[in-house]
Specification:
The complex is a heterodimer of chains A (243) and B (493). Chain A is built from five helices and ten strands. With 243 residues, chain A is of the alpha+beta class. Chain A has two domains: 9-79, Ubiquitin-like (UB roll); 84-217, Alpha-Beta Plaits. In chain A, a hairpin with a 2-residue loop joins strand 1 and strand 2 (15-18). By secondary structure, chain B is an alpha+beta fold. Chain B has one domain: Cytochrome-c3 Hydrogenase, chain B (Orthogonal Bundle), CATH 1.10.645.10. Chain B has helices at residues 54-57, 66-70, 78-92, 99-131, 142-148, 150-171, 191-221, 223-228, 295-298, 305-311, 318-329, 341-361, 412-415, 417-432, 439-450, 456-459, and strands at residues 15-19, 29-35, 41-48, 180-181, 184-185, 235-240, 252-256, 262-267, 276-279, 288-291, 301-302, 380-387, 390-398, 404-410, 468-473, 479-485, 491-492. In chain B, strand 9 (276-279) and strand 10 (288-291) form a beta hairpin. In chain B, helix 6 (150-171) runs antiparallel to helix 7 (191-221). The two termini of chain B are 33 Å apart. Classes of the chains: A alpha+beta (243), B alpha+beta (493). The interface between A and B is medium-sized, with 21 and 23 residues.
């Protein structure tokens, strides 16, 4: 059997985009070379729909494109000043909810949150910082876990569950108290079977899950986003793991 | 000495003059003077009023992050903090830094010395030195300098730019780069980058020579005035190479007293606390270090360009060494203790930095790929370098999980705290005592402070240690309650 014919299309910002039945707007867009900003989505995993950066206007209604299946004759607006303004506000809220100290963060230049902020022309956090106390867990011999930078995308949760088969991570708490937790009686990463070679150790879009002693080894100028925008990097055939 | 002017015996009923902020220095500070009705000076203090807290908030951070984090202490000499912290981290990971990485770090550091010294001399101090300490305020600044001496101003900007380019090509950015990593460097210098820097280096050396000439001429025109302005004798401390040469990147600690006699020499800085202690005072966020062997009263000292040029046996580059000899011989050695001689010594160092950059650029090791090493882990690391403003000490302790549990930074300007206060008191006595106070006279105090090129934002680290006294008075001024917090954190009434 060959690949199913893709005779059905939607339009995104006036461009015809073909799709297969069951394909989301996001995946159809990515396949057609149309960029929709996203942070919690990674084509290697099931969609999650939590960051809301990929919200598009479908026939006049706002929908999360990474979870919304494409349907014939959908008219999608994506790259509009209104939507990009909302996206910028969402990124700004992520910045003030966590403690993102880009100047000293070893993920700078490789960080998708930072790259999304640049892409959306974010010039300041705009909102008042929450300055929430967030935990740091250095108990694992090879991994440093810094929840100050966690944006609750659940990519590590999904990777540990779906690829590594370990269920090391989960999300707990409600509202502003929502946080990433570690599946161990002690709550410490060092008391799990997590390994630096696990998929979950390499999917964090920010600097939350870090391989110890590797920081800053890539010179400025050779980092993921030094010469490419996030819209280019996330359009590459296979999104790279984020060291 | 003028310690009696640190605290007036009877501060009540004295007039208070405040210079705030002190201008053309890095960071925020103020000077307070207490004068009686005849304008006699009873108290003169240089206060550091800003607060940072780096030593506290690096706690819990992974050790490899800290060199990048702490360089944010400063926008003028971040390279110094970056390097000092990384030297401490080299010790923590048990690394012997490869030769190529050591040379690349030295190159970066020389770029830093060049740009910082140029900034200070041309932008911050030249207006005083060229126009006079009490020249019109509107003229006494970099814009006035550019109008009256366009070539000098242009050279100052160009020297600074070149130093920043050296930093950019070794660290990745002009300010706050990430080239230095524990155990070495993350990049070498490509041939293209080397050739780009080589193109201008002859000109940079020539301009640096001209800057030494300029300060020499200014100084020599009025030798008695320049020698005596804010004059006092003190000990000096700096790093020196094992053969006694000037070395701004690595060496042993040397301290000499006000008569040039050795207090200690070639001291292994990883045990600096056997030689230096710090005191805290209630009126400044900056600590007061002293040489342990000489005690709190006598143990204060000066660091920075003057200390280094006085302490070293020779400078290992030709042109700067010739200038060092001229400086040492000037007026029978009369400039070697002078506050304003800091400017002269600083320009000799800038020339040395330019020469050292040229020498390093011709070294093929800079293109090596052998850039990082590591060895046996330790829980403690100390890194010391000679920053543009003087000896810079970074000291860290980590836990088994590789997080910082304790940090102590003794910053160049902190070493000079007592010395700057002494200079302020001397100038207050020399020029202000009993006089009608004018803006020009007050600028004399700032001139004395500027000679040290203080970086006040770097220097304020007395978190939680500052002794405080709070008094509650009623409307009639009668004491109702008093609460005192000592430097060990204990409270008493």
């Amino acid at each position: 059997m060959g690949a199913p014919a893709m005779s059905k299309t939607i339009t995104i910002d006036g461009k015809n985009v073909p799709f297969q039945d069951g394909q989301t707007i996001m995946n159809a867009a990515l396949a057609a070379g149309v960029y929709i900003p996203h942070l919690c989505h990674n084509p290697q995993f099931e969609p999650h729909g939590s960051c809301k950066l990929c919200v598009v206007s479908v026939n006049g209604r706002n929908m999360t494109s990474c979870t919304m299946p494409a349907a014939e004759d959908m008219v999608v607006a994506n790259n509009t000043p209104e939507l990009n303004s909302d996206r910028k506000a969402l990124v700004q809220m992520l910045f003030v909810e966590g403690n993102h100290i880009c100047p000293a963060c070893e993920a700078s230049g490789n960080c998708q949150l930072q790259a999304a902020a640049y892409y959306l022309n974010m010039l300041s956090p705009h909102y008042t910082h929450f300055y929430q106390p967030r935990a740091v867990d250095a108990s694992h011999p090879d991994i440093f876990l810094d929840l100050n930078r966690c944006i609750l995308c659940e990519l590590c949760v999904r990777a540990s569950r779906e690829v590594d088969g370990k269920n090391v991570f989960g999300i707990s708490g409600r509202g502003i108290g929502t946080r990433l937790v570690v599946n161990a009686a002690s709550g410490r990463l060092g008391d799990t079977n997590f390994a630096a070679t696990d998929k979950a150790a390499h999917v964090c879009p920010t600097g939350t899950i870090l391989i110890k002693r590797q920081g800053y080894k890539i010179p400025i100028g050779q980092r993921t986003f030094d010469h490419k925008k996030i819209s280019e990097v996330q359009m590459e055939p296979m999104e790279p793991d984020h060291e | 000495m003028t310690f009696e002017l640190e605290t007036a015996a009877h501060p009540e009923n004295l007039k208070r003059i405040v210079i705030e902020p002190v201008t053309r220095v890095e960071g925020h500070g103020k000077v307070t003077l207490l004068l009686d009705e005849d304008n006699r000076v009873h108290q003169a203090r240089f206060h550091i009023v800003e607060f940072r807290g780096f030593e506290k908030f690096v706690q819990g951070r992974p050790f490899w992050e800290v060199p990048v984090l702490v360089q944010r202490l400063c926008g003028i000499c971040p390279v110094s903090h970056n390097l000092a912290a990384c030297k401490a981290m080299d010790m923590i990971i048990g690394a012997t830094v490869p030769v190529a990485a050591d040379k690349l770090r030295r190159l970066m550091h020389m770029g830093q010395i060049l740009q910082s010294h140029a900034l200070h001399f041309f932008h911050l101090s030249a207006p005083d030195l060229l126009f006079g300490f009490d020249a019109a305020v509107g003229k006494r600044n970099i814009a006035g300098l550019a109008a009256a001496y366009p070539d000098i101003a242009r050279q100052g900007v160009a020297l600074r730019r070149y130093g920043q380019e050296v930093i950019r090509l070794t660290s990745g950015k002009r300010v706050h780069g990430t080239g230095v990593i524990p155990g070495g460097m993350n990049k070498n210098l490509s041939l293209d980058e080397r050739d780009y820097l080589l193109k201008e280096i002859e000109q940079i050396i020539a301009w640096s020579q001209a800057a030494v000439e300029l300060i020499k001429v200014i100084y020599s025109e009025r030798p008695d005035f320049h020698n005596s302005f804010g004059f006092y004798r003190s000990s000096f401390m700096s790093l020196v190479r094992s053969d006694g040469a000037l070395d701004l990147y690595h060496g042993g600690l040397r301290a000499r007293d006000e008569h040039g006699q050795t207090i200690f020499d070639h001291v292994d800085y990883t045990h600096y606390w056997d030689y230096i202690h710090e005191e805290v005072k209630s009126w400044s966020y900056m600590k007061f270090p002293f040489i342990r062997a000489r005690g709190r009263e006598q143990g204060w000292y000066r660091v920075g360009p003057l200390a280094r040029i006085n302490n070293c046996d020779f400078i290992p580059t030709r042109l700067a060494e010739a200038e060092r000899k001229i400086f040492k011989e000037f007026g029978g050695g009369s400039a070697t203790q002078a506050t304003l001689a800091y400017h002269w010594a600083r320009m000799i160092e800038m020339l040395h930095a330019a020469e050292a950059i040229q020498e390093l650029l011709h070294d093929p090791d800079l293109q090596s790929d052998d850039l990082v090493s590591s060895g046996e882990r330790q829980l403690r690391g100390v890194g010391v370098i000679e920053a543009p403003r003087g000896t810079l000490i970074h000291h860290y302790r980590i836990n088994e999980d590789e997080q910082i549990v304790r940090a102590n930074l003794i910053v160049s300007t902190t070493h000079n705290n007592q010395a700057m206060n002494e200079a302020v008191r001397q100038v207050a006595l020399q020029y202000l005592d009993g006089q009608q106070i004018t803006e020009g006279l007050l600028n004399h105090i700032e001139v004395a402070i500027r000679a040290f090129d203080p970086c006040l934002s770097c220097a304020t680290h007395a978190l939680g240690k500052m002794p405080l006294e709070v008094e509650l008075l009623d409307a009639a001024g009668t004491l109702i309650q008093r609460l005192i917090k000592d430097s060990d954190g204990r409270h008493r009434t």
